[in-house]
Amino acid sequence: MKGTTFNQLTVFQTIVQQGSIRGAARTLKMAPPSVSQSLKHLETALGLPLFTRSTRRIDLTEAGQLLNERISGAMSELQMALETVQALSDKPFGRVSITLPRFAFQYFLKPVYGEFCERYPDVQLEISVTDEAVNLLDKGHDAGIRLGNLVEPGMVARAITAPMKDALFASDEYIAKEGMPTTLSELEQHKMIQYRFIASNQLAPLTLINNGQDVPIQMPTALIVNDTDAVVDAAEKSLGIGRIVEPMVHKQLESGTLKPVLEECWYPYPGLHVYFAQNSQKAKRIRVFIDFLIEKGQQLYGA
After folding, report:
1. pTM of this prediction?
2. C-beta separation of 148 from 272 below 8 A
3. Burial of 272 from C-beta contacts in 10 A (0-12 / 13-18 / 19+)
């Protein structure tokens, strides 16, 4: 592999992460022909094609998949080594990428990320909102936010919110028409506003607590949505019983716009956590971002 450089491998990894040469060019702030040329040099050095190309797609070949798997850890270590030295500089700089589900963005990150950008103007924040449980290293993310029980194994995790519960709620109009369920058996006769995960295409299962035991609940479907705001909106329109983590509907419950249903049975979750690879905090740009999230979690979210 004589002649292969760190920069060529960086370009290759970025093409994988962005899914296109143009996307990699935007991320790397390079001209697309320069990205193509770098990839061509790498393929020439290896003697193998790394991608199959068509007018609409670019896909990894078997060689490309193997190379991506083998270099991911090493490239991260090299990048961290460089950034450890660069961290001797007074000001953090560079790109920080975070992945998180939409409700975590709405509840936690949306109110505070502007302050981070103002505090650290030389750090370029990239926010990826998805309900997919992604591998940070494979996708090129520096950190993620998930409920504590969903953090991928092997990651360092720090709590940034207090524990929360999976709330059930309904409008006064719905309750007047259909009645308020007072037992789990009665609940199963009511219609649920179901949430479908975009990434897995699966409906979110419902589990409640009864006498200290986890109880899976099956309910007829009122309608299915893949957006947390739509769950609340449909409940406000009296279409069925909604369910979502309590902070996302706290204002409506507090104001009485929506009423809690079987609150004593709500399932507990360990709260949102920021998670990251073991050595990533050595990079100042990542360290200040994680410290910022923890700071805001303590100030605003009861962590």
Report:
1. 0.70
2. yes
3. buried
